[in-house]
Amino acid sequence: MVIRRHARSNPTLIKLARNLSSEIQERLCSSAVESGPARFNAFVSRVTDPPDSSGESLPLSGKSIAIKDNIATSAFPTTCSSAFLQEFTPSYDATVVQLIAQAGGHISGKTNCDEFGMGSFNINSVYGPVLNPFQLSTGGLLHDNEDRSAGGSSGGSAAAVAADLCFAALGTDTGGSIRLPASYCGVAGFKPSYGIVSRWGVVAFADSLDCVGVLAKNTGRIRDVFDIIQRYDSKDPTSAPQDIRRLSRHRSASRLEELKGLSSGLFNGVKIGIPREYFPSEMQPSVTAQFRVKLQDLKERGAVLVPVSLPSTRLSLSTYYVLASAEASSNLARFDGMRFGSKVQHSEETDLSQTSNIYAASRAAGFGPEVRKRILLGTHALTADAFDNYFLQAQRIRKVIKTDFDAVFRSRNVLSRDPPESSSSELDDDDTKVDILLHPTAISSAPRLSEPLKGVDGYLQDIMTTPASLAGLPALSIPSGFAGDDWPLGMSLVGQWGDDDLVLRLGEAMEQTS
């Protein structure tokens, strides 16, 4: 049996979602607040039947997997948490959903998210905000003034995992949309290397940045799901070729063979880079203090800590928002009420001689304020007057950011124009080069929903996560302790492109030290 939330049947909830940026202090109306697991607002549709583990023994048999609402599923509506797609149910499953089902996984439902994946706090949803379940899940009392964000845009997936509503959940990460919620909710979240997991069937936000990833209580569970979905897909033109995949897997396996102490929680021989630029002035002091505790722990277990510099980091946030918004303005052009999306009847005074006037009413009513803002920003960046100064300049900076990362990793980038022909020439013996980078995932713990971040401050949370997204690198956020307010913090491991297995294995070993 499928239980679905209908935003259209609750005008109060829609109004709250649409005006949340200015009225976040108002509680969800009583008709929207439900008892039990639904109090977190993590799911927008969900099956009540438990997973069947009595059949054939498969890797994910008996395991419940939740799916973010911007990933196509034929058994559930795919609304992208938008009023525009309330009536849309795909006739097909995304490749990742097919792979999970073939491996025996039980698709338990669709999770709430920021509309079309645009947001850092999961408050831009037609279904209302997702509440961070951390305090309740640890036995505390959730007071009205302690309602906190689950992070975004994959907040529903993170909340479902944190509240033990599923074994693992799929999310999408464009600029930090998996890692940030993972940090806020005290769970693990993994963004794979760009092109390793198929995007076919994912409603696009920014094609060159979007990645499908996994959230779970620990890295071991993430590996269980990631091993299933990391397949080449001929239907996805951005899917990494098989030969490149084999090369990168062999490289990671060779390095892991050298690091025999990881199974015992020892990091002898592991070089961990600490980027100087990842401690901005906006970072809460307790975040830095807790991170130092973790570094000391790793050092005592044999890790070699190497200070590194990524000079272009300061430009990453502005670069990301120019590129992501430009791609979004193009991708969302298809939602016009005729090809995709619910159609709104135009007024009698509308000039029908221009096609744009016909679908303008549908787009104005269907898209929320954050989506409209980013469409306008992206459209401006692509105009003839702004193209060179904004879009092309952002592309140039993105290339420099990738070069910064390549300069500090021990592993060479197999996507370079002249990749090495054999694994023996893939490694750099320079003592200053590192296996992975480690940094705090967010500049603070989960913000209170009663204290909205206004203006540019609402986008600063992405400052730690956008660089790895722009470079297409694998990044894993794992719990690292607690801030001064006793809410969870995360730290992120970032590896060279294709070193996904290395990042996950090192993350798993770090969890043993936590």
Task: Describe the structure in your own words.
- By secondary structure, the chain is an alpha/beta fold.
- Helix content is 32%, strand content 13%.
- The protein contains 15 helices and 12 strands.
- The protein has helices spanning 11-18, 20-23, 95-102, 134-137, 155-162, 179-185, 219-229, 242-258, 285-300, 316-331, 355-366, 369-381, 387-408, 466-471, 500-512, and strands at 2-4, 43-47, 64-68, 106-111, 168-173, 188-191, 211-216, 271-275, 304-308, 436-440, 475-482, 488-494.
- Strands 1-2-4-3-5-7-6-11-12-10-8-9 form a 12-stranded mixed beta sheet, with helices on both faces.
- It starts with a strand and ends with a helix.
Brief write-up:
The chain is an alpha/beta fold and 514 residues long.
Cα shape: globular
**Which parts are unreliable, with pLDDT below 50 for 5 consecutive residues or more?**
8-35, 139-144
Instruction: State the order of secondary-structure elements, H for helix, E for strand.
Output: EHHEEHEHHEHEEHHEHEHHHHEHEEH
Main structural class: alpha/beta
Q: What gap, in angstroms, lies between the N and C termini?
A: 39 Å
- What is the number of E strands? 12
Feature tags:
32% helix; alpha/beta
Layout of helices and strands:
Layout lengths: L1 E3 L6 H8 L1 H4 L19 E5 L16 E5 L26 H8 L3 E6 L22 H4 L17 H8 L5 E6 L5 H7 L2 E4 L19 E6 L2 H11 L12 H17 L12 E5 L9 H16 L3 E5 L7 H16 L23 H12 L2 H13 L5 H22 L27 E5 L25 H6 L3 E8 L5 E7 L5 H13 L2
Parallel strand pairs: 3-4, 3-5, 8-9, 8-10
Antiparallel strand pairs: 1-2, 2-4, 5-7, 6-7, 6-11, 10-12, 11-12
Helix pairs in contact: 7-15, 8-15, 10-12, 10-13
